[in-house]
Amino acid sequence: MAKITLLRLSLIVLVIGLTFVAVCHVSVVASAVQIKKTYIVHMVKSQMPASFDDHTRWYDSSLKSVSESAEMLYTYNNAIHGFATRLTAQEANSLRNQPGILYVLPEVKYELHTTRTPSFLGLEQSANMFPESDASSDVIVGVLDTGVWPESKSFDDTGMGPIPASWKGACESGTNFTSKNCNRKLIGARYFAVGYEATLGPIDESKESKSPRDDDGHGTHTSTTAAGAVVAGASLFGYAAGSARGMATRARVAAYKVCWVDGCFSSDILAALDKAIEDNVNVLSLSLGGGMSDYYRDSVAIGAFSAMEKGILVSCSAGNAGPSSYSLNNMAPWITTVGAGTLDRDFPAFASLGNGKNFSGVSLFKGEPLPSKMLPFVYAGNASNATNGNLCMTGTLIPEMVKGKIVLCERGINPRVQKGAVVKAAGGAGMIVANTAANGEELVADAHLLPATAVGQKSGDAIKDYIFSDPNPTVTIHFEATKLGIEPSPVVAAFSSRGPNSITTEILKPDLIAPGVNIIAGWTGRVGPTGLAEDDRRVDFNIISGTSMSCPHVSGLAALLKGAHPDWSPAAIRSALMTTAYTVYKNGQKLQDIATGKASTPYDHGAGHVDPVSALNPGLVYDLTTEDYLNFLCALNYTSSQIYSVARRNYSCDPSKKYSINDFNYPSFAVTLETQVIGGSSGGPSLVKHTRTLTNVGGGPGAGGTYKVSISTTSPSVKISVEPETLTFTEANEKKSYTVTFSASSMPANTNEFGRIEWSDGKHVVGSPVAISWI
Questions:
Q1: What is the pLDDT of residues 173-218, one digit of tens each?
Q2: Do residues 155 and 241 share a domain?
Q3: Catalytic site residue 548?
């Protein structure tokens, strides 16, 4: 009896337990279903029912049909038709089935791609070539970034005329920012945080200004690089001393703050693009990126298409994921994608070892110097109990083993300047940061918090050998002033993202490179040059690196060209910058890639390094219209819905027409050759034809010229022919077409070859890079 009772009790306990587990499981599942995320909803505006007299009311009605409590975070009218909202996964699925809904896409988090430059680019010597006229002052550069520090001297509006009548924007007030912070130079400032706060909660206004004010520095640096005024006597702690100036000193700046301490969200970016189009900017600069989505799912690509239609050139950073292949962001063909190169300027700091050997590094340190004597030297990995102690991450160094010594840290994971802060906190006297294989010989200067220098991988390996072989290693660091005339320069930065294009291999990206290493420009007064909390130094200018820095160079140069040629389309301006870019040094050697020490390729540098003086008068351009871009989408076999998502219109590809990317009028060539199959076996040459059209912009009415083609390739197995070989123009804006035939009898599988096609009339050289892949 007792056994039966005990058995019943056990069964009861088991049932209760199972019930409890089941209830918990249901609760967890229910909780998961209720989690809300931000979605961007694309609507087909033309499908609004006649019962609605306003699109916003229709959007709201559609939203309320799946969730009574949901609210619209933003409504979009220019970049897309639609809105952003917070929904559960179930609600999002329900909304997708509502009439007029095109796409319901989850929000994407984007990240920032973080005085010598004008001289290096030839702008100072040729300033009289660029008209400082009302037209150049009417150009407005919109910068989507971390905001703006209006007190920067680079936003001085002395001598600038009235704000252009075309400007429809505003200067918004907020925390630590009022409309009075804008002037005739900084004509607009807006901020977008609704999407950010919906995901991460309210902004802590004690740490970050909920306004256009830049508490980070990145946005001020990019906007002043693009269009900062001339500021005499600029430097960072005496480094890079001289006059700082943006590329387009007379252009106006409109700041759109979309990036906050924990990132940049696509709903905010899209809202800023929407406003910038409405505000009538002429150039948009975005030094940010977020993945490699198809164009119809990429908010930046979609917004950029709408901007392009309005005549706005959109310049974006290529990304800092180099030197890996297929590492690019912002690859849409209506975006100008910019990689990074070096300047001919350096900031030497030498590591002198106790064995008498010296190794060259770079540093922007300014502070108490090291003692005149040699100091004890220790490898971080030998002064830590952590498995990654060599990286000098927070809390990994043992103070007793570091105090009073110079520490060798290795590059990786945490920021270089933070490694120095870790060494300093542990009592270290100085630091040497050594590159690993991932960074090779690329040297990026930093404003370290203690005496420090950065050295390349080869030097780092030699220094480690010394530490491990000498029982009492010693070292000191000698700092030198700014050094100019570094050769070779430019070289492609190792961090600069590379092709091929992972979305459309037939479009060669990046488009070109521009200065992106050790760039000086305006800075915020909120944080020090390192951005670290423990850095209490404040500077007017900072020196930083990244494709974030190269992008605004091209944005500003595009503004210069827009001022000189107001009637040029965004495609014409990009073409001028690309076809006049250079790929060889003055000695005839090819541009180098610092990651390999060898010649760079079009997958690294695109069309080459920007040459603004030549771009002012390119002779011929490859122009593109909205119709061309729509045909490009048809060539990708996009559906009507996908095309609508990108182009905001009902557009059906003609089923009787054969669309080909090979006929897309891009200023570069990315060619895929495949092994031909004959009689069941491989053999026979592979052959591909591309068609292009050139427009004469080489002078006023009646201007003409005869251009002859020249072709070069890196392999005799690849043959390139052009028909016709001569193009004669008799008047301005005249168009002439030509066909290129690419063929190869054999190439190793999955290899690449490169070439170049140039048209010249003896005065102008119109160059196009060629990248050929063999499958």
A1: 999 999 999 999 999 999 999 999 999 999 999 999 999 999 999 9
A2: yes
A3: yes
